[in-house]
Amino acid sequence: MNRSRSHDLFRQAQAVLPGGVHSPVRAFRGVGGDPVFFERGEGAWLVDVDGNRYVDYVGSWGPLLMGHAWAPAVDAVCEAAKRGTSFGAPHEAEVVFAEAIIRAVPSVEKVRLVSSGTEATSAAIRLARAATGRDRILKFEGCYHGAADSLLVKAGSGVETLGLPDSPGVPADLAKHTLTLPYNDIEKLREFFDRHGDTIAGAILEPVVGNMGVLPPKEGFHEALRELCTKHGTVLIWDEVMTGFRLARGGAQARFGITPDLTTFGKVIGGGLPVGAYGGKRELMKLIAPEGPVYQAGTLSGNPLAVAAGQAMLKAIEDPALFDGLEKTSARLCDGLSALATEAGVPHRLNRVGSMWTIFFTPDEVYDYPTAKTADTKRFGRFYHAMLDRGVYLPPSQFEAAFVSTAHGDAEVEHTLAAAREAFKSL
Length: 427
Ligand code: PMP
Known about the structure:
It comes from Vulgatibacter incomptus. The protein is an alpha/beta fold. The protein contains 15 helices and 14 strands.
């Protein structure tokens, strides 16, 4: 497959962008080789600048639940743009959008819009600290909550791929307030809360992890954390930036039946435009300025284009058949991949929750950071390029989630499985 134009553009990019990209994992450091430059997206497909076509399982890292250039969002954005691209002042659609979020996610009684997931999690942490008068937060090893200082401690995602568990530039005095525990370890959780619970402002986690690859929560893990947070007055923050509006209309919390105190959103909520949000209990949200003293603001927050795309998305997911369809396509795809890997004698674990999945090249169960690290990343890199050359675009790292959209159908699954049959054999 000829990708000479991508290659040339990457050289050009490296002269002016750090590492040639605007976000680290895009640079393909996790799999080697040059990243692909894209010209356009059409439903489940991406077309690169050399005219090659790929079935896309990155979906812009999660937002594109309905695939690329989804007409209802595109039309809504174009219509909104004609009326003005930004007001920096209240407008009706942002209120109606907030009402739709609250209808979909009952734990959210009030919500504030921001422009990225990182902004949402940073604000939620500040709010938890302000509400409790405590500084410490608890996060889980390998969970990623955005590139904010307090949260770049034992984070997954691009940080993991680059081997920078703590980034230089994060003050040690700040990082020391972020305590970490292994994901899915209920015993350690109980010990930790016995010892430190009353000093912890907030506990933040991905309810299904996507940022060390996909890891489902173990039975009882969420229940234990909910109970301990309530007991110790710790604010439970579910980071649903990835899972929100994807695993169900009401997100992972609807799936698992847990009520967090605060929830952060991003990705799907914006229908492919830059939107994030945080919301939760009224008594917490009333502390946010100007109703309360906790400062948080944004020039483009509630941006009418982003809100228009988000509204189209939230309307689409009111149809429960949409999630049934996603489940079926994802199951067919992942069962097929796993069967082909087994047939080719490739030890693997395929973790999937709804339309989020990862194939780990390890024979062992993957349920936390150390077990994810048992995966053979070199082998993943070879598999990655074998798939890429056969027209399948996967997340370029072993430690990321792949996503299925409603635009993926039988033809895309067939294409992917045919590529995978050859790719597994080539390993
Ligand atoms: N939280 C989670 C769970 C995420 O997956 C991400 C992004 N991958 C973020 C927060 C940060 O969101 P953003 O990149 O929009 O700042």
